[in-house]
Amino acid sequence: MEYHESTLQQDMTEPLMQQDEKGNISFEEDDDLTPRNTSQNGSLGVVWLSTTVAVWGSFQFGCCVHYSSPTQTAIRKDLKLSLAEYSVFASILAIGAMIGGLTSGHISNFIGRKGTMRVAAIFCIIGWLAISFAEGVLLLDIGRMCTGYGIGVFSYVVPVFIAEIAPKDLRGGFASSNELMIQVGGSITYLLGTVLTWRMLALVGLIPSLMLILGMFFVPESPRWLVMVGQQREFEASLQRLRGKDADISFEASEIQEYTEKLQQMPKIRILDLFQKRYLHSVIIGVGLMLFKQFGGMSAIGSYASATLELAGFSSGKFGTIVIGLCQIPVTIIAVALMDRCGRRPLLLVSSVGTFLGTFLIGLAFYLKDHELVLKLIPMMVLAGVLIYLWSLASGIGSASWVIMSEIFPLNVKGAAGSLAIWANWFGSWTVSYTFNYLISWSSSGTFFLYSAVSAAAILFVAKLVPETRRRTLEEIQAHMLFSNSHS
Fold first, then answer.
1. What are the tens digits of pLDDT across the range 374-406?
2. How far is CA 279 from CA 3, 225, 408, 424, 481, in A?
3. How far apart, in whole angstroms, are the C-alpha atoms of residue 375 and residue 369?
4. Cβ–Cβ contacts within 10 Å for residue 339, how many?
5. Residue 77 CA to chain centroid, in angstroms?
6. CA atoms lying within 13 Å on the CB side of residue 278
7. What distance in Å separates the CA atoms of residue 180 and residue 47, rounded to the nearest whole number?
8. Is 12 a residue whose pLDDT tops 70?
């Protein structure tokens, strides 16, 4: 069995890459084959449409995550919640998302990427209705957990679906639209939260899921999932529709089908199997990026931005919330444009440096406040630190972590490995959002210095372990990862 698996891995990597005398890996560039790449000759209209529909799930993600920030004061006042009860409400989203993350890979492999997005949208609709009509903490928490389950599924299936339908030269930009729409959803939630009641804001949260369910009637299923489940005719029709009716899909279809057939000859994968040597590098990267992103303070700053600004000295968190809402979207748009121009690694490195500087500046501001130094500058220092952090997050690790997660796992382990990465992301989110209020009570400056230390470690992690995936097909990337794992 080991020999058989090793032979399969060698077959998958040999046509795609070469190794020089020093052991450096390079991919084959066959000039005779290059013109047959359909991404150059086809139409992107259906890819644009499919991505636009799918990222309504990302928009929903942003709405759900950031809902607790502008509504904290009003919900606690109307429902008479203690700080501990509100901390549970804010963090229980991540509990639902962890469950959603663990089941998302299996569901998407069973009913397809489109069906899985519909399921996620239904859970979000149920959750928003429960929150909107809640008169006590129980229904409030149930609704929050339902929306958490929905976005836990979205956080896996949306980037995977986009990566599987996009041409390789534009995949990074298309996949980054996932993070862009997360930021758009979050920013709009921040802004609307300053003028709408928390119940009305929950009803507005229904819109993205309803738009996604409607839009799914007009887009094709992922061709890679169709070939994985043996639907050959539907696979070819989906790929042709995505690339344009006049595009020659023969080479791309053959490459996808051949690679998938070889992967399917390998044994079925369980979660524990992911820690075998041949998959370990991919798992470490996928899980590691999610944990560094979360333990660097993402959910704390995202969920408690208003409270943090009030703690810094602003009379109300609304001013800072509006500034945050207006500033995040342009930065994410720039990141989308740069993803396929600069590559994933440079953006990750610059982003990690920025999140370190942002959280360090916030920590320094609270340290100065504790010692009653330059008190007039503290609010603006904290606001600047929050903006630097959020800009850096949106421009790199926030978006690139999802892109890389959707790229590096081989198709035969994508369900299990993707579920593990999503679970790790939401476990980190729950831990950070639940502990934030308690850490702030312990030491406001120490809390953000801890987050900055995590970002510093993330810089080393990216520099040492994360490969560049720009301008490679999914099959090339995944074969490369299998090859590097087996020779490490």
1. 888 998 899 899 889 988 887 778 777 877 877
2. 16, 21, 10, 17, 8
3. 6
4. 26
5. 33
6. 19
7. 17
8. no
275 token code pair: 């820690």
Distance, in Å, from the CA atom of 286 to the CA atom of 70, rounded to the nearest integer, reads 31
Query: What does pTM read for this prediction?
Result: 0.73
CA–CA separation, 258 and 250 (whole Å): 12
Distance separating alpha carbons of residues 87 and 251, to the nearest angstrom: 53
Residue 25 forms beta bridges with which residues?
19
Question: What residue has token string 């609304």?
Answer: 318
CB–CB of 323/387 below 8 Å?
yes
Q: Which of 200, 205, 197 is nearest to 73 (CA)?
A: 197
Q: In whole angstroms, what is the distance from residue 216 CA to residue 226 CA?
A: 16
